[in-house]
Amino acid sequence: MSGQNSLFRLKDFGVSVWCDELSRDMIRGGGLSKLIDEKAVVGVTSNPSIFQKALSEGNAYDADVEKLAASGKSTEAIFDALAIEDIREACGVLRPVYDATGGEDGYVSIEVLPSLAGDTEGTVAEAARYHREIAQPNLMVKIPATPAGIPAIRRMIAGGKSINITLIFSVDRYAEVAEAYLSGLEEFVGNGGDPRPVASVASFFVSRIDTEADKRIDAALAAESDPERRRRLESLKGKIAVANAKLAFAKFREVFSGPRWEALAAKGARVQRCLWASTSTKNKAYSDILYVQELIGGPAVNTMPIKTMEAYLDHGRPEETITRGVDEARRQIAALAEFGIDYHDITDNFSESDGVRKFEESYRELLAGLESKRRQDAGVASRR
């Protein structure tokens, strides 16, 4: 397909397309290569939910599950082995992209266990293990932007490792993430390290902000009778996530400018790009490409499920949008307080704790599904 389709044209505005899906069938069956060739995909992210979906569909993992179970490995160890193999192979598929872009893109992300979200030392150990065992230059390890995750991020960057910071919701927390990146780079460079191979993205979970904000707006509407106030409340629905992302991008431009950043850039350091995650539209009343179309501008990454990519190919309009209406975004967020809706509670408190909880639930579901498959395979083996 022509490199001029709408997904390829996003790169003209500084946006890299990453895929928010991964499976062994995609890697070995050529699906991932096809996404690179036809849908402009230059990176892949993974998490427990993505692995659970992959494990539950088809039988690509059955032989390895049976073999690993027969060797006495626990369910957790089986998942670890399967995930590491998938990520290593995906890194191989994307390595030509990494080389062609000089390390700007071509990354594959694997996430530390959700149970480590409150454990700095455990996170550092797990992230270091993934980098050591997968041993690919285009690997990014995902660390959540929790209070315990921030120092782990800094330490990994200071050690010269590429990190995808996940579960970011608030602009204030993003400022802490960016500081961890900058100070980690400064330590690394100060110790004689070359920053050029070190890459990082700051992943904002976009649609989840609207899901929670809309819920609170609906509650406020139920208690509001004044027509004008109701109209203003209604006008905020489906707007807060994009507004929040626009303010985050404005903060990105502020952080990665000025003498401090220029000193690092002069040594070859890369900016820590914003990555727009959770970009599938949850509310069917909204455009199915809302969190792509309204967040165009860069340098940045948009990680999309395949269904969202196909929708954007069909009716996306590549044009700079993320720098438009920033003042309006501030007004929209400020207006929430007028109706008793706490924006900071949505972004700083609820969303982070809810995000960690959902990742823990996904991991438990993944292990349960894998345990079921392990027992099924063991039963088949015993009957042979």
CATH class: Alpha Beta
Number of helices: 17
Total domains, how many?
1
The radius of gyration over CA amounts to 21 Å
What's the name of the CATH homologous superfamily?
Answer: Aldolase class I
Largest sheet, if any?
A: 8 strands, parallel, barrel
Describe what you observe in this structure.
The protein has 384 residues and is α/β, with parallel strands linked by helices. It has a single domain (6-373), classed as Aldolase class I (TIM Barrel, Alpha-Beta Barrel), CATH 3.20.20.70. The protein has helices at 6-9, 24-28, 31-38, 48-56, 62-70, 75-100, 120-134, 149-158, 171-190, 207-222, 227-236, 240-255, 258-265, 290-293, 306-315, 326-338, 343-382; strands at 15-19, 41-44, 107-111, 139-144, 163-168, 200-205, 273-277, 300-304. It has an eight-stranded parallel β-barrel, surrounded by nine helices. The N and C termini lie far apart (47 Å). The model has no long low-confidence stretch (mean pLDDT 93).
Summarize the structure.
This protein has 384 residues and is α/β, with parallel strands linked by helices. The chain has helices at 6-9, 24-28, 31-38, 48-56, 62-70, 75-100, 120-134, 149-158, 171-190, 207-222, 227-236, 240-255, 258-265, 290-293, 306-315, 326-338, 343-382, and strands at 15-19, 41-44, 107-111, 139-144, 163-168, 200-205, 273-277, 300-304. Helix 6 (75-100) crosses helix 17 (343-382).
Question: Keywords, please?
Answer:
single chain, 384 residues, alpha/beta, TIM Barrel, 8-stranded parallel barrel, 17 helices
